[in-house]
Design goal:
The protein has 541 residues and is an alpha/beta fold. 28% of the residues lie in helices and 20% in strands. It has an 8-stranded mixed sheet with strand order 2-5-11-9-10-8-6-7. An 8-stranded parallel β-barrel has the order 12-13-15-16-17-18-19-20, surrounded by 6 helices. A 3-stranded mixed sheet has the order 1-3-4, with no helix packed on it. β6, α2 and β7 form a beta-alpha-beta unit. α2 packs parallel to α3, α4 packs parallel to α6 and α8 packs parallel to α9. The longest helix is centred in the C-terminal third of the chain and has 17 residues. The N terminus is likely disordered. The chain binds ligand TNX. The site of ligand TNX has 10 residues, from loops.
């Protein structure tokens, strides 16, 4: 499909009044007339605006451009340390050396031409906690927001208006043109998440940071870490040291496994927070616990520790829910992991327990939920927990394909809220098609269109949009052993999940989206992301 092509001539009256609100089709191309072809070689002959997630409203405001050079200054409100930090993030993106990195300074008096301004003064209240307004004119760039998160998201949009070369760590891009635009934007949902399974295969902090970096580009704000499963326990817990030391010593296929030290986990939390991403730690309970049961015999009903497990079956393990020590164990891990977790959530798993009666299961979930509350956190659990009596603060993570939705509407009626992770659309470990070497197929194939073309408001009968926190794309790692594997399954589908979570449903269409998606390729290449070149997407070289 061709992108829409708007002729914008240098000095015509049309260009001065030219404003296109991008509702039906967001991808715009400003096609240069032949006279413009004589301009400096740094200017492309055709510019396309391809922002993901699609902003609420965006308009071209003429044919002008703002030029970013090493002498561009980034100005922030005096005394606003967060704005200055976000300014340095932008400066680091633009420049690679002392000579090419813009200066970040406090605004004093009149704003000189050639500045990029980040301000929380006078921003429209309706922008809310995460919204922003971005105005680019030939004289300056202004991002205004009510809160730092909005400034950060405005910077991510600006980043997507800059050439992909800014993503290279070693590139020098002395003159970059940004088209004159006006964008007003804010998210549809509060929860725009991704989940990484670091239990089936362990991924070290640097891999997690690379995933966080890609999430930030698309304004995602929750990273759920699946920190314990049958095949491995991935976080140090001081009062139960064998969990990590022994329980973390292997992975699917028998590799060396690994775990995060407390300092590494703290640092990951900081790294994510700096990018407005909240880490949601999950310790899957009471099933998916073989690594813990192997580490501590007393957690087993018969007092005997099973061997470590390196296969990929599910459903065979459970904590001994009738023993009191089980609840001391849960309390210790929630307290000790919760204490070094920056965000308010603690995910207790709750999925695929086949060894307990419904009554035993419900009793366990209700006690675990209470332990989470007593430790000052908010419980999240997979959709099976909806059978138990839930607190209004508890969040249900819907994952099972259509047909098994029992209990969710009832739980919502009594106050619980929902995250949507439908396996038939956004399980990023599902193969794209029959030729995909990695991944699983139990929920069916999920091509890029399947992952994009659904609306959260229509997924669950009797669950109003107001009870939906948002969306989250899980990436299970039974078949994924390295960062390149993770990226191959996540990209391009994760970008679509980010858009479903952020952008209004009205006007979202596959035909229009696939063009914007195709335009991400050079940026992903520059970021070192190993993505799948799905044939249904017109990839830009
Ligand atoms: C189901 S999703 C699981 C995981 C597997 C995944 C593989 C969920 C709550 N449980 O244990 O890794 O399928 O796609």
């Amino acid at each position: 499909m061709r992108s829409l092509c708007f002729p914008i001539r240098g000095r015509s009256p049309l260009s001065r009044t030219f404003t296109v609100v991008l509702l039906a089709a967001f991808t715009l191309a400003a096609c240069r007339s032949s006279e413009r072809a004589q301009q400096p070689a740094t200017q492309p002959t055709q510019r396309t605006l391809s922002i993901i997630p699609r902003p609420v409203s965006a308009a071209f405001t003429g044919s002008g451009t703002f030029t970013v050079t090493p002498s561009t200054t980034i100005l922030v409100d005096p005394g606003n340390a967060e704005a200055a930090r976000i300014g340095r993030f932008l400066a680091g993106l633009i420049g690679n050396t002392v000579e090419t990195t813009p200066r970040v300074a406090e605004a004093a008096g009149a704003i000189p031409a050639g500045s990029i301004v980040l301000t929380m003064r006078g921003a429209d209240r309706s922008l809310g906690a995460e919204g922003y307004e971005l105005t680019v004119t030939p004289e300056r760039v202004t991002i205004s927001a009510q809160q730092p998160a909005g400034l950060f998201y405005g910077v991510q949009t600006l980043r997507q208006l800059l050439p992909p070369a800014v993503e290279y760590a070693a590139a020098i891009t002395p003159h970059m043109e940004i088209p004159a635009v006006h964008i007003v934007d804010q998210p549809r949902f509060a929860w725009r998440g991704a989940m990484l399974d670091v239990a089936r295969h362990f991924f070290g902090p640097e891999d997690v940071k690379a995933y966080i970096d890609a999430m930030a580009l698309y304004k995602m704000n929750r990273l759920h870490l699946h920190l314990a499963d049958d095949q491995g326990w991935r976080i140090e817990v001081p009062s139960w040291p064998r969990l990590a030391q022994y329980g973390g010593s292997t992975e699917v296929g028998g590799g060396p496994g690994g775990y995060y030290t407390r300092d590494e986990y703290r640092e990951l939390n900081q790294y994510a927070q700096d990018r407005f991403i909240t880490i949601v730690p999950e310790i899957d309970l009471p099933g998916h616990t073989n690594a813990a049961l192997a580490s501590y015999p007393e957690l087993n009903c018969d007092g005997t520790a099973p061997p470590l497990y390196t296969g990929i079956e599910v459903g065979f393990s459970t904590l001994c829910v009738d023993k009191e020590i089980t609840y001391k164990f849960v309390d210790d891990i929630v307290r000790e992991i919760g204490a070094i977790t920056a965000g308010p959530y603690f995910h207790i798993g709750g999925d695929e327990v086949m060894k307990l009666t419904q009554e035993q299961y419900n009793g366990f979930i209700e006690r675990a939920q209470e332990i989470v509350r007593a430790n000052g956190k908010r419980a999240v659990g997979w959709d099976e927990i909806a059978h138990a009596r839930l607190l209004p603060t508890t969040i249900i993570q819907h994952w099972r394909p259509r047909g098994s939705l029992e209990g969710i509407a009832e739980a919502v009626a009594s106050g619980a809220t929902v995250i949507l992770s439908p396996a038939d659309h956004i399980y990023l470990d599902m193969k794209y098609d029959s030729t995909t070497a990695l991944g699983l197929t139990w929920a069916g194939y999920s091509d890029v269109r399947d992952a994009y073309e659904w609306d959260p408001a229509e997924r669950l009968p009797d669950v109003p949009e107001s009870a939906i926190q948002g969306v989250e794309a899980p990436l299970w790692a039974e078949t994924l052993g390295k960062l390149a594997d993770i990226q191959y399954m996540a990209f391009p589908r994760l970008a679509g999940v980010a858009e479903i979570g952020w952008s209004p449903a009205a006007g979202r269409t596959w035909e229009e989206y696939r063009v914007r998606l195709g335009a991400q390729a050079p940026r992903w290449t520059a970021m070192g992301i190993n993505f799948y070149r799905a044939p249904e997407v017109p990839w830009k070289e």
